[in-house]
Design goal:
By secondary structure, the protein is an alpha/beta fold. The chain has helices spanning 34-49, 64-73, 88-92, 105-111, 123-126, 143-146, 151-161, 163-173, 181-193, and strands at residues 21-25, 52-56, 79-82, 97-100, 116-120, 137-142. The protein is built from nine helices and six strands, in the order βαβαβαβαβαβαααα.
């Protein structure tokens, strides 16, 4: 995997003793609106613990009006919403944990040493095998299988409350650094062209 250029100047997390911010991000279009589902599951916990919520949606996000209406009705206002995904590395520098889909973002989170709860949009996405506990991720499976449960809420509460569990996941992400991969690939290609 190679990282997008914005990550080359981003600072990965060192150990953090508490959770002050969470990133919620589900890709360009988020066809299932998992963003809204995740937000509804974590809002009370974030309010109780004064955790800032960063929401990053792609420019093709299909539910902007619905999300904006929901946010405007919330009592809790420590929430930042952006549709500019090119700034996600700077937001990752602020967030100790994340809730994400099972795509490229999980590699970026690993590189930034951020444990995350992962929900796949569909069966095909769930076949991506990187998002697992030994790599620092709690994989909840496919959205349609959890959308009528409170598993995301319970998992998030555990991640916020249980510092040793969070540290274990954090340490599992620490073994990853994808920053040299682009140079390695260019070197290999040039070697083959030799």
């Amino acid at each position: 995997i190679t990282l997008r250029d914005e990550f080359y100047s981003a600072k990965p997390h060192q150990k953090s003793s508490s959770v002050t911010a969470v990133l919620v991000t589900f890709g360009g279009t988020d066809q299932n609106n998992i963003t809204m589902f995740a937000l509804s599951q974590i809002i009370d916990i974030c309010d109780k613990n004064s955790i800032k919520i960063y929401i990053v949606c792609g420019s093709g996000y299909l539910f902007k009006e619905q999300l904006n209406n929901y946010l405007s009705q919330l009592q809790y206002k420590n929430i930042e919403l952006t549709f500019a995904s090119g700034v996600i590395s700077k937001i990752m520098e602020q967030a100790q944990i994340a809730i994400s889909s099972n795509g490229r973002t999980v590699y970026e989170l690993a590189d930034m040493n951020i444990p995350a709860i992962v929900v796949s949009h569909h069966e095909r996405e769930s076949t991506h095998s990187f998002a697992k506990l030994e790599n620092g991720f709690i994989n909840l499976g496919v959205y349609k299988d959890i959308c009528n449960t409170d598993i995301l809420q319970k998992t998030f509460a555990k991640l916020v409350d249980d510092a040793s569990y969070r540290e274990l996941l954090f340490l599992n992400t620490k073994k990853y650094n994808f920053r040299d991969n682009k140079q390695k690939i260019v070197k290999m290609i040039l070697g083959l062209l030799g």
